[in-house]
Amino acid sequence: MIEKILIANRGEIALRILRACHEMGIKSVAVHSTADDDAMHVRLADESICIGPPAAAESYLNVHAILSAATISNADAIHPGYGFLSENGDFAAVVEEHGFTFIGPSPNHIRLMGDKIAAKKIVKKAGIPVVPGSDGAVTSIESAVKIANEIGYPVLIKASSGGGGRGMKIAKSKDEVGNAFSLARSEAQKAFGDNSVYIEKFLMRPRHIEIQVLADHHGNVVHLGERDCSLQRRHQKLLEEAPSPALNSCERVRIGEIVAEATRKIGYRSVGTVEFLFEDGEFYFIEMNTRLQVEHPVTEIICGLDLVREMIRVSSGAPLSFTQDEVSFSGHAIECRINAEHPSTFLPSPGKVGDYHAPGGLGVRIDSAIYSGYHVPPHYDSMIAKLIVHGSNRNECLMRLKRALAEYVIDGLDTTIPLHQKLLESRDFVNGEYDIHWLETFVARTNAGEL
Ligand code: ADP
Question: Which helix (H) or strand (E) holds 405?
């Protein structure tokens, strides 16, 4: 039985996990840097331990300090949240070696999916469709050109250890392959300490559609439908919705079943997200995220489930509390990521929050750890709130989102709220007609005063 969980994270996700713990009668231990002394997750946890100075490398990524905090506080388990150590297989392994339960997948599955070349091979074998491309790592310009010629242009050269869109370069023709290959390799080496790269066909106007899965230790796997995360800027998601306006119910069931079956075949457990590009009715695997996603609330809302609770239950060895037949989808949900950033230049805007008023009412959920008087520190990710709304259909959801955004007051900082409001005025967005490149163009046109 898990009685006490240490939450190795901060911000809204630390609160999200803490809330699930408290609803399950589990004690919570917050860890924090000195920059987060006044953070809400510290205030609301049963216990809190300072693990280091503001720099994440010395606090939220400090494995020794986190393990010491777990030992001192007598925690049974560690939940990594997302970001920080959540996709570090070595961390998961060391947590288990010290006798704590890691609330997430096995260390081996985390390592496997962190190596994108290996991941692509294994999921392909398990029946998941992948983007056409090289069979494995490409090690010379000559072979890169040969493979790119076979696939057809444009191609994308990607880092095997990639994340956050880094180490990715497009080559539109044979002449560009050499340069793109060298740039991708050096960027990958700098960012990840691993210069292995592979090649994929560059899809021109895909949507980003991801499937949520949940698996236990007993071979039970369910899929919880898709999320459409095509609205991205610099490969960072800004708004997510479920269900996707682009899928019909046959496509939804087909891809869900393929993913659940593959998840079972590879022996995965806990929550996981299989990300696809979707173009002309076809799905192409890009990666599997072995953690809770920022955008998990849209799935929770349309499925009426608590994913963090399920994660905690399955890591303590319990079987899933429901079957695939019991999963049903209700209405439509949209999540807006609200960042402390200027809405058109995207420059970070840390500082003190002045007046704060969060929207509420029917179908509105706010996942945020900020409050009036709180100082948004400059050291971490700029996301300060997630506004998630639910409607019985997409139209109702859009109207509700509009009124919730209008109610939201966050004084003292620049935020991305005005950008979300502009989005809601866009006909393409309202019609659900957008691909992964659409937002960049929309932002450029808005900034140029054309929209
Ligand atoms: P990362 O781990 O760096 O986020 P991903 O493989 O998940 O890398 O890709 C991030 C984003 O890059 C995708 O959401 C998509 O927008 C774009 N992308 C990745 N692969 C392709 C591709 N083959 N064609 C077109 N766009 C791609």
Answer: helix 394-407
How far apart, in whole angstroms, are the C-alpha atoms of residue 166 and residue 345?
A: 20
Closest CA to 277 of 205, 331, 332: 205
Distance 23 CA to ligand 1 centre (A): 37
What does the radius of gyration of the chain's CA atoms come to, in whole angstroms? 22
Nearest atom in ligand 1 to the alpha carbon of residue 201 is 23
- For the question of whether the overall pTM of this predicted structure is more than 0.85, the answer is yes
Pocket-forming residues, ligand 1, beta carbon under 6 Å: 131, 156, 162-165, 200-203, 206, 208, 232, 235, 275, 277, 286-287, 436
Q: Answer yes or no: do 197 and 75 share one domain.
A: no
Q: What confidence tens digit (pLDDT) does each residue in 162-183 have?
A: 887 788 999 999 999 999 999 9
Catalytic residue among 291, 313, 337, 365: 291
Q: In whole angstroms, what is the distance from residue 106 CA to residue 312 CA?
A: 14
CATH number of the domain enclosing 192: 3.30.1490.20
The contacts of residue 25 (CB under 8 Å, 6+ apart) are none
385-408 pLDDT, tens digit per residue, is: 999 999 999 999 999 999 999 999
269 is catalytic: no
